[in-house]
Write a structure and sequence with these properties.
This protein is α/β, with parallel strands linked by helices. The chain is 33% helix and 17% strand. Residues 1-20 have a biased composition (Polar residues).
Length: 260
C-alpha cells in the first residue's frame, strides 16, 4: 500500500528536523522547468495568478528567485517536517524514529504542484504553487497539463514491491486530479471523514484535514499493509461507517464535536 496526501500552504523552515535522513526529490528536473517560468513573474502577476495579498506575492516572488538545484540541509528541509497545517498536525512525526521514517519513505507520497510526487524525507525549498494554479509552461496552460502522466508513473514505481498494490487516497480533490486512474497500476481506495449532527452526516473540511493526517499516522505507525486493517482506525472518535461507505470509498464518521 501507498498513501497519498496533499501538501500545505503553511511551511516551517525554522524548526530543526529531528533526523539526519534526507533524500532528493525524483522530479527535480521538472521542478526546474516550472521555476524557470515562475521566475518570470512579477509580484502583480503572482498576486493575480494565486489570488493572494501583496505581502504573500512578494514573499513568493523572492522564493522563486532564491530557488536553485543545489539542495542541501541548509537551504532545504524534509517535506514531512517542512509542511505545516491541519493535515500535518495529525501526524505525530516528531516522535518518529528512523525505522518509522524509513517505512514512511516507502509508503507515503505527498502530491506537490512544484515537486510532483514527494517522499516524506525528500528535501524541499520554500515555495507556494498549488496544483490548481494556471501557470503557463512548456507543456500547457496549467499544472495538470504540465505533470501529465508523470505523477502517476512515479506512483506506479512506488507501488512496485508493495504487499498489496493499493493506493490509499487521503489527498484533496485538487491534488488527486493530478493522478490518472486509468494508468495507475493498482486499486484506488479513497478515504473520507464525516461528522454527524442532528441526523445529518457531512464532511467538515477543518476536521477532515486533520483526520487525513491521523489516518496516515495510524497506517505508518502500525505498519499496515492490507486495506482491511485500516478499518480499525479509531482516533478522535472516528469509526468505520459501513452504511456511508462503498467498495472504493470508505467513510469514517463520528458525532460532530461541540464548539469550544
Amino acid at each position: 500500500m501507498i498513501i497519498t496526501l496533499s501538501p500545505s500552504k503553511g511551511q516551517d523552515f525554522e524548526t530543526p528536523t529531528p533526523s539526519d535522513i534526507h533524500t532528493l526529490p525524483d522530479q527535480l528536473a521538472d521542478s526546474q522547468l516550472l521555476i524557470n517560468e515562475a521566475k518570470k513573474l512579477s509580484s502583480e502577476d503572482v498576486s493575480e495568478l494565486m489570488d493572494v495579498s501583496e505581502n504573500i506575492s512578494n514573499l513568493n516572488v523572492q522564493r522563486f528567485q532564491d530557488w536553485n538545484r543545489d539542495f542541501n540541509t541548509q537551504n532545504a528541509k524534509a517535506a514531512l517536517f517542512a509542511f505545516k497545517g491541519d493535515v500535518y498536525s495529525g501526524i505525530q512525526k516528531e516522535s518518529y524514529n528512523d525505522d518509522d521514517l524509513a517505512y514512511a519513505q516507502n509508503h507515503l507520497r505527498i502530491l506537490s504542484g512544484l515537486y510532483g510526487a514527494l517522499r516524506p524525507m525528500d528535501l524541499i525549498q520554500p515555495y507556494r504553487l498549488e496544483m490548481k494554479t494556471r501557470l503557463k509552461n512548456p507543456r500547457g496552460d496549467n499544472l495538470y497539463q504540465f505533470w501529465g502522466d508523470k505523477i502517476t508513473q512515479q506512483l506506479n514505481e512506488s507501488l512496485e514491491g508493495q504487499t498489496e498494490k493499493v493506493l490509499i487516497n487521503l489527498a484533496s480533490n485538487e491534488y488527486f486530479k493530478s493522478v490518472k486512474p486509468k494508468i495507475l497500476d493498482g486499486k484506488i481506495l479513497s478515504v473520507n471523514f464525516k461528522e454527524t449532527k442532528d441526523g445529518k452526516t457531512r464532511v467538515i473540511a477543518i476536521f477532515a484535514k486533520k483526520a487525513r493526517g491521523m489516518m496516515a499516522d495510524f497506517i505508518l505507525r502500525n505498519r499496515i499493509e492490507h486495506p482491511e486493517d485500516i478499518k480499525d482506525f479509531g482516533s478522535d472518535g472516528y469509526k468505520f461507517d459501513a452504511k456511508e461507505s462503498t467498495d472504493n470509498n470508505w467513510v469514517f464518521s463520528r458525532p460532530q464535536p461541540a464548539k469550544k
